[in-house]
Amino acid sequence: MHHPDPDRSGGDAARHAAGMTVRRSVLGSAHVDRAEANTTPFTEPFQDLITRYAWAEIWTRPGLDRQTRRCMVLTALTALGHWEELAMHVRAALRDGTPPEVLQEVFLQAAIYCGVPAANRAFALTQGILSEFGLATTSDPDTGEG
């Protein structure tokens, strides 16, 4: 799916607005509203930076579709052990209609390229989130093992 490019010539305000549109689409308005409500004068420059660059400049590029970008993010977060961010993006993926089977494939691929312990943690974390969404299987969410 191709998403419109932000107005790259329109300056920071246009990129920020375009980024907020994509950020809300990917993460959900509830998450973005919480992040915005928790923004302080100290964190505001960082929030603006990620909104303009991550969400407007990168997530809107035409070279990859949103699903591919999402899978890359999930893999990178697994590789780096950023579990809170991984949980946030898994929830966002499920809310956006990504089937659990796609998440399963991402983490199987991650097991080979990122390591089995990282993938094991990603599977366990995601199994717990699948339970939250009513998509649980008989696996133990604490270990990822059936």
From TrEMBL:
* Alphabetically ordered keywords of this record: Lyase
* Pfam families named among the record's database cross-references: CMD
What protein does this entry describe?
Answer: 4-carboxymuconolactone decarboxylase
Describe the location of the Carboxymuconolactone decarboxylase-like domain by residue ranges: 46-127
The record's InterPro entries line, in alphabetical order, gives: 4CMD/NDH-1_regulator (IPR052512), AhpD-like (IPR029032), CMD-like (IPR003779), Decarb_PcaC (IPR012788)
**UniProt-listed Enzyme Commission number(s):** 4.1.1.44
Q: Carries keyword Aminoacyl-tRNA synthetase?
A: no
| Taxonomic lineage from the root | Bacteria, Bacillati, Actinomycetota, Actinomycetes, Streptosporangiales
Q: Name one GO molecular function term.
A: 4-carboxymuconolactone decarboxylase activity
Q: Which domain of life is it from?
A: Bacteria
This protein's record includes keyword DNA-binding: no
Organism in which the protein naturally occurs:
Lipingzhangella rawalii
Uppermost EC category: lyase
